[in-house]
Amino acid sequence: MITGTLYEAGKMMVMQNKWEQKKTTGNINKKEKKELTPQEKELQRYREQLEETKKGNEYSALYSKIQSGQKLSPAEEDKLKAQDMKAYLDYKADQAEQEAFEEKLKHCKTKDEAQRLKTTKMQSNLSKIKNVENDPYISDSEKLRIARQIQGDTTASAKIFDKFTQSEEYEKMPTEAELQQIRKMERDAENAAMLSETEELVDISEENIQEVEVADIIEEHHSEAENLIIDAKSKEKEAVNGSDTVLEEMHAIVSKLNKNKEGSNIDITI
User: Fold this and answer.
1) Contact 151, 91 (CB under 8 A)
2) C-beta separation of 130 from 253 below 8 A
3) Domain-wise residue ranges, the chain
């Protein structure tokens, strides 16, 4: 009876020692690693390559989305943040700038002012991307990354402006030429009021002359209004064409940088 008790106590002590050892080494509940066969190792490498390719494609899709001026979803932002903090911070900075650009458009007083704001934004970004292209101290891969980011910001800004031109706010905005015409009409109205005050002092023939002059003024205003509409549409068309030209030039620069990067990655052997 005593011998059995001593045996059980010794067995419990051995098990306790093994437990303490496992806690110390961190091997609790871990099975011993099994040596893989060559076929299993090859399969494992293949699976790892597939996983890396999948991740690469996912991040590539994120960069392409940013480059095309699209917004990322919250989940996509989290992925970008985990993979590339620099690209994430640039993306968030561009988002803030685009929101500010949209607000500035809403506070413009005329269509011309809105178009100038958009042109300034586009030309500023074009200058940035050209400076990056010609900077000898930036690597080809970094040039390509920055250029794509600038291209994305420019595309997004162009989309914001195009959407704004379809809004009721923009439709109600006068052009600067229309404002000048309104001021001229107000002055003419004041002059007509002054003439009406002296109506009793003129004879019938002079009144007839005045009626002819008023009719001429109305016809002149009508003709000028038509010209203003044509001029406003022409300026809007120029603004759209200007955006397309800037984006085409940016696309050419990005394509060139991409070729330079691919060329720099080629291994040369002798």
Assistant:
1) no
2) yes
3) 64-264
